[in-house]
């Protein structure tokens, strides 16, 4: 029997999808290291994913001193919402 989690991963790469969902769920400032821990991946892998998302205009980086805060763009929020809905549907 196929579990919901398994079928979701057939359609989506888990880490990028979960990064978007994690950004959407939280109202706190988000940093790469925190997101990496939340989705269980290395910091460098999270940064690569986030850089690709920035190119696709799904996230923005906002420099606050030495730290870059990560925020969803309007498009990123819409994509994250749809990913959550699909995951819940499956």
Textual characterization of the structure:
With 90 residues, the protein is of the alpha+beta class. The chain has a single domain (4-89), classed as Arc Repressor Mutant, subunit A (Orthogonal Bundle). The chain contains five helices and two strands, in the order ααααββα. The protein has helices at 4-11, 14-25, 32-38, 43-55, 74-89; strands at residues 59-64, 67-72. Helix 3 packs across helix 4. The longest helix is centred in the C-terminal third of the chain and has 16 residues, at 74-89. The radius of gyration is 13 Å and the shape is globular. The chain starts with a helix and ends with a helix. 21% of the residues are buried. The model has no long low-confidence stretch (mean pLDDT 87).
């Amino acid at each position: 029997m196929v579990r919901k989690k398994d079928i979701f991963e057939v359609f989506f790469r888990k880490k990028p999808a979960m990064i978007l969902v994690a950004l959407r769920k939280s109202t706190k400032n988000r940093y790469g290291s925190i997101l990496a821990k939340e989705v269980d991946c290395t910091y460098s892998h999270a940064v690569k994913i986030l850089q690709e998302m920035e190119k696709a205009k799904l996230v923005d980086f906002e420099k606050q001193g030495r730290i870059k805060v990560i925020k969803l763009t309007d498009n990123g929020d819409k994509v994250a919402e749809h990913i959550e809905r699909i995951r819940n549907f499956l």
